[in-house]
From TrEMBL:
InterPro entries given in the database record: Cro/C1-type_HTH, Lambda_DNA-bd_dom_sf, TPR-like_helical_dom_sf
Residues annotated as domain HTH cro/C1-type: 13-68
Source taxonomy: Bacteria, Bacillati, Actinomycetota, Actinomycetes, Pseudonocardiales
GO molecular function: DNA binding
Protein name according to UniProt: Transcriptional regulator
Organism: Amycolatopsis albispora
Length: 352
């Protein structure tokens, strides 16, 4: 086709999808079939597709081998070397671009490397980036994005206090950069962490925090902020508020006419379905939860072990609440811990 391989794989995939008449990532995902979240990650160059998926995409889009060659040419993501991170940042001609690229790498690695393994590297990178950014205000938005990744990975490693610190650092950097949407994202991530606490006091604080920042973004970004508010409502048992906010998420996401902000790149219809299903589990509506979670998990990429495992624990809980104990036990027995404190905590709680 002569499209050339100067494009990244993701950029080529997006261009060919649009040329082939697939107006949305979801439409292409159904044709493959994979989850829309996979297509989102592929186009953002944050996940390498399985070779069989690449071949299917190539055939569907009439790429005549260009996508296969582009995928083969992609360098494998590698863990940044902790001992060299300070030097990388200190000598960068464009500090913001370097931090942004490291953030992109960590986001990709986070899909496949457990929090316990990844967090020490993220922590060192974040500390080095923070030192370098003290004299470079233009890099503050990038530091805020990296801080959010640091919070998420720390939480997955079971280090909740460290995660909270990273989220607050990210919010502070975003405020200094005059990016209220980025600050809202960091604070809503902290609210999500609080909502997952066993403490009802923490959950109540999560409602207050998530609601206070829910209007600081638009489009897909606001849909993500509202998702976290809905989860906080569900965790305190407020069914009517959770339902109202979930309906708002659906409406805002469906009518969004602008690309998702970088911090909400992963939000898609399947993730929204999963969140509604999880809320139904929390609110003791297992029948609805089973339908929602089964639909989304069936489309989820098996290679994303942690997310699939985490969501499967909620499906198992819904099955148990419906009296289908044998099927719930079977699902739990087949769910790996994925070196994730989140998944392991869910498995321990449900298997106790």
């Amino acid at each position: 086709m002569g499209t050339g391989l100067a494009e990244t794989f993701g950029a080529m995939l997006k261009r060919l999808r649009e040329v082939a008449g697939f107006a949305s990532q979801s439409a292409l995902a159904r044709a493959v079939p994979v989850s829309p979240s996979n297509i989102s990650r592929y186009e953002a160059d944050r996940q390498d597709p399985d070779p069989t998926v690449v071949e299917r995409l190539d055939a569907l889009l009439g790429a005549e081998g260009d996508l296969v060659r582009a995928a083969a040419a992609r360098p494998a993501a590698a863990l940044p070397t902790p001992s060299g991170i300070d030097l990388v940042y200190a000598t960068a001609s464009d500090l913001g671009a370097v931090i942004a690229e490291q953030t992109r790498q960590f986001q990709q690695l986070d899909d496949f490397v457990g929090g316990r393994e990844l967090y020490p590297v993220v922590r060192r990178a974040l500390a080095a980036a923070s030192r370098a950014a003290t004299s470079n205000a233009r890099a503050l938005p990038n530091l805020a994005e990296l801080g959010q990744v640091g919070g998420w990975v720390a939480s997955d490693a079971g280090k909740q206090d460290a995660a909270a610190g990273h989220y607050l650092t990210a919010a502070q950097a975003a405020d200094q950069a005059e990016r209220p949407d980025l600050a809202a994202s960091a604070l809503s991530s902290l609210a999500y962490q609080l909502a997952n606490s066993d403490s009802m006091t923490d959950r109540a604080e999560a409602v207050l925090l998530a609601s206070s920042v829910a209007d600081r973004a638009t489009g897909v970004g606001q849909a993500l902020l509202l998702e976290r508010l809905a989860w906080a409502h569900a965790r305190i048992g407020d069914a009517s508020s959770a339902a109202r906010v979930l309906d708002a998420v659906d409406e805002i996401y469906a009518t969004a006419d602008e690309p998702a902000p970088q911090w909400a790149y992963w939000l898609n219809e399947d993730e929204i379905t999963v969140m509604r299903g999880r809320c139904m589990v929390e609110l003791d509506r297992p029948a609805a939860a089973i339908d929602l979670l089964t639909t989304a998990i069936d489309r989820y990429d098996p290679s994303l072990v942690r997310e699939r495992g985490l969501y499967t624990t909620y499906l198992a809980e819904a099955l148990a609440k419906s009296g289908e104990l044998d099927e719930a036990r079977r699902l739990l027995a087949a769910t790996p811990g994925a070196d994730s404190a989140r998944v392991e905590a869910r498995l321990r709680a449900l298997c106790a």
